[in-house]
Each structure stands twice: as structure tokens, then as C-alpha cells.
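Reviewers of the previous submission asked for a worked example of the structure-prediction workflow described in the proposal, so we include one complete record here. The input consisted solely of the amino acid sequence. No template or homolog information was supplied to the procedure at any stage.
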Amino acid sequence: MDWLPTVATIVAAAFGSTGLWQLIQRRLDKKDVRTRMLLGLGHDRIIDLSMRYIEQGYITRSEYENLHKYLYKPYIEMGGNGTAKRLMEAVNKLPLHKDSYEK
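From that input alone, the workflow returned the following C-alpha cells.
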């Protein structure tokens, strides 16, 4: 038990040090930048594909699954905005066509 005060002092010094908090903040900032980048890339892809399908006038089942399941849902879960939501609502109204490999 004689080592307990020494360990407590070391832990308190580590948590109180500016360097440790700067390191933690830097790691959080990097994660935030990555999140923003992923949101930006997802947004760009959703907008591009949605506009293409809207201009085309229809969407196939696999195109819809790719857009909705793999791009739109994760984008919304990460905190994406309303622009993609509005376009996705328009895509949801498009006629759904079979894929060329479906009979």
C-alpha cells in the first residue's frame, strides 16, 4: 500500500498535464475531420447519383439498394443534412425497374 500514493500522484500528474490533453484533443480533431470528410464524400455521391436517376426517370432495384442502404442510411446516421434527404425523397418516387439480369 506504500506505492498507492505514488501511483495516484503519477496518474493525477498525467491527467493534469497539458501535453496529454493536447494529444487527446488532436486525436479528437482528426476524427472530427475524418467524419466531416466522410460526410462530404457521402453527400457528393448521394447528390450525384440521385440527380442521375432523377434525370433518367427511373431507378433499378440494385441502384436503389446501393444508394439507400450503403450511402443514404449511413450518411443520415452520421448526421447528414436535408439536401440529400430532399433528393432521396424524389428518388423514392421514381418508378422501380428490374435490373437487366432479372427475368
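The beta strands are 59-60, 96-97. We consider this example representative of the routine output the project will generate in years two and three.
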